[in-house]
Amino acid sequence: MPEAHCTVLWIDQVAVATLPPEIDISIADAVRDELLAVVNQGAVALVADMSKTMFCDSAGVRALVRTFRRATESSTKMRIVVGTLAVERVLQITGVDRLIETYPNVAAALGSSSKGGGG
User: Fold this and answer.
1) pLDDT mean values, one per 10 residues, the chain (119 residues)
2) What is the dihedral of CA 68, 72, 73, 75, to 10 degrees?
3) Is 110 exposed, middle or buried (0-12, 13-18, 19+ CB in 10 A)?
4) What is the C-alpha separation between 20 and 12, in angstroms, rounded?
5) In degrees, to the nearest 5, what angle opens at C-alpha 118 toward C-alphas 39 and 101?
6) Measured distance between the N- and C-terminal CA atoms of the chain, rounded to whole angstroms
7) DSSP, res 83
8) Least packed by Cβ within 10 Å: which of 15, 18, 93, 100?
9) Burial level of 40, CB count in 10 A (0-12/13-18/19+)?
10) Do the bridges between strand 14-18 and strand 7-11 make them parallel or antiparallel, or are there none, so unpaired?
11) pTM exceeds 0.85, yes or no
12) For the chain, domain boundaries
């Protein structure tokens, strides 16, 4: 069995997936597959917790966007928790922060139904 890069905590039908400290081309596909598996398990919402992620390259961004597209097709809401300035900046530059709602922490992502802001 391949190594898991994300840990997933289920709260009813909401999945909180904690992403690794670095997401680059070497693991981005595995992270995407793990996130898609959560969507395929019938999550009504997926919170991608990047609060401990210090680095995310274009392959990681692509994994998030592909997951978001599949989630949208499956009527699964997707949110991203951003905890570092470096990741926040990558999401801003690529426009992903306008595509996927971002939040400063998991509690805000779980509790808010409106657009969150990075912190």
Assistant:
1) 81 96 97 97 97 97 98 97 96 97 96 49
2) 140
3) middle
4) 23
5) 30
6) 37
7) -
8) 93
9) exposed
10) antiparallel
11) yes
12) 7-111
